[in-house]
Amino acid sequence: MPPGTPFNSFALPYPIRIDGFSAIPSDSYPQNAALHLLTHTHSDHIVGLQAKSFSQSVICSADAKTMLLRHEVYKERAFFEGEYRAEHQRTYKHLKVDPFVGPDGELSHVGARDLLKVFPLHTPTSVELEDGKEVIITLFDANHCPGSVMYLIEGKEGALLHTGDFRAEPWFLESLKHNLFLQPYLSLPDYDTSSTNTHCGVIKTLEAIYLDTACVMQSHQVPTKEDATTGLVALLKLYPPSTYFFINSWTWGYEDILKAIARAFNCKIHLDDYKYKIYSRLTSDPLLQALGTTDPDETRFHACERFSRCSHVNVDRDGNFVEDNDESLNDEASEDTVEAMNRMFNLPMSNQKAKREKSQEKVVVYVNPVSSMTPESWAKYKATTKNQLLKGEVVRSLLVPLSRHSPLPELQSFVSLFRPKRIIPNTLDPSLLDLDWAGIDRIFQSCCRKPDIPARQLIPPVPVAQHTLFLELARLCRTVSKQTIPDDDEQDVAVKNIIGDLSENADMKSRAMAKQWLVGLGYGVDPSALKGSAGRRIDVLRSWLGLSKWDESQPDHPPETTLKGKGPTADTPAKKRIAIRRESTIRIRNSSDNEHDSSDDEDAHARTAHHLFAPSDGGEYDAQARWDRSSMSFEDEDAAEIEASLTGASREPRMGIRRMTPESSPIRGVPKHRSVPKSPLNNKPSGSPARGNGQHFTTSTPIDKVGPRSPLPYHNRLF
């Protein structure tokens, strides 16, 4: 699950868990997921699937299933290539176990299972949950990476749209407008909203959009993928035909760069064996399927393994080949000996020496994707680089601003397209203690619509933030900033992955060059005295919530006021103590909760703890305290493989699935008497535990029946 996912990744009010497969805290609710959905295969979205004890069915796209079953960490790939492993070590191969031929020659299904259930895109599919309850699930492409999808969930509790990770470019929004299954949920033009009849059943409203907020604090526009790749190709064509290029596609999602180059130059792209075998099996993208080759001599465009580059791009700044193999192969005398032995025994001649001579003075240009560049910066960068190349200068590192997540302007356009009742962020920063949730709710208020009639709240309310908590965060940020180097805290994950040639400090020089063209969080926001990443985030929240700038003259004991226009007032002391609750963390790395605590901060901690955990008489507290927040957090999608999570055996829900065509979809007005036989997913592993009685999830449980839990000590909180 992404960092800070609310409600333990449950798509409330339904007992459906999306991109969350790890153990659920014992004191949280609900305890069991009736259904699991997977949006895509980036590492922070598949936590828990590597556990051999995981035994529930998971709905995903066909390409996501292919990528997941062939997933292999780089270390294991290197061991196999070096013949230290006899076979591939697939991380998730236990999710699909094929039948085998027994000693008697008969096919045996003992232990066979397939937990990954492929749903086709744009095909409403009915799924039975519990107690005869059903939902209809429809998948849509998410424009994020191969296999990534969004989910439309429709049921008696209303309709939800879960975006997963996505990029809502203008063309993407246009395609949604013409999608038959999303058209009922499109908002009317502003001038028609007064005449909306919400009870006729023609125009519907989404109860909530679970929104990708990974880049919500990027308030600036970013170039479209087409603009980025078109500009890159124009620069590539300015280089001499003898130039080699290394495309640093370090994670899934940069395939548009490869496709644009393959089309523009009508050539293959050299891929490592791992990428080649995955791309060649993706059925939804024929161009991506066909563009790869494993022959490094076939092309001058390379997207092979960056930690083990082929000889054509494995060079230093002077263009000299850098050999990664045994030192004896670097010795020319040894090479001559090998050549002599080959001639003596009539063996094929080694081309090692020829490759070395051919690589002398070779120019290799490194293409690095970034995401935090404005269209204006991109235009200026293209003009500057073009002038350098026309003057004969050697530019060895190129940037391409291809973002895989939408910034705030694109997100607001996407939400305005539907105008749901509310927004649930998929990604929150745990260190901000839910202030980002309150800020996101505020910034999207103009894009949402309120319910026409009062209704029972099936999804817990937005956390109530307080000015005192905001000031406390600012003080903590100020303290941390004095102990760290703010510039070392990168905002653009892609910048951390920028590479150059194999010369000393080449990567660092390339990153320093990139920073000249990028903008950070809070671009366009009047900065305060706060520094670093945390300071910029707090400045953005300050601008969203209408607060004054932080300065050094802030009092040590701020007045008890709440955020402007939001939350309780000083005249309501009971509600004034409503605070943001965060549950204890499920650690995946060994760490000490007290590691960064100081006795000098005890007073500050006590003040914050009072605002965070003081008991409340308000109804919102009971509702909010009932739902846990996810604490699985990762620095980036290219992090090392997730450690095995400790999960208990899961109960397999009974699901009945029936596929529907656009004509037979219930949202197209199918008569009630028409039914389609259900075909249960009977793929439970042998010996899986049976479902217990009385453990069913009830989606209509009133929020006021939920009781609070005991407060947690402050040192269990993350900052």
Automatic annotation (TrEMBL):
Signal peptide: none annotated. InterPro entries: DRMBL, RibonucZ/Hydroxyglut_hydro. Residues 549-605, 657-719 are annotated as: Disordered. Residues 549-559, 580-597 have a biased composition (Basic and acidic residues). It is found in: Nucleus. Keywords: DNA damage, DNA recombination, DNA repair, Endonuclease, Exonuclease, Hydrolase, Nuclease, Nucleus. GO terms for biological process: DNA recombination; double-strand break repair via nonhomologous end joining; interstrand cross-link repair; telomere maintenance. One of its GO terms (cellular component) is nucleus. Pfam families: DRMBL. One of its GO terms (molecular function) is damaged DNA binding. Residues 336-427 form the DNA repair metallo-beta-lactamase domain. Belongs to the DNA repair metallo-beta-lactamase (DRMBL) family. This is Protein artemis. It comes from Rhodocollybia butyracea.
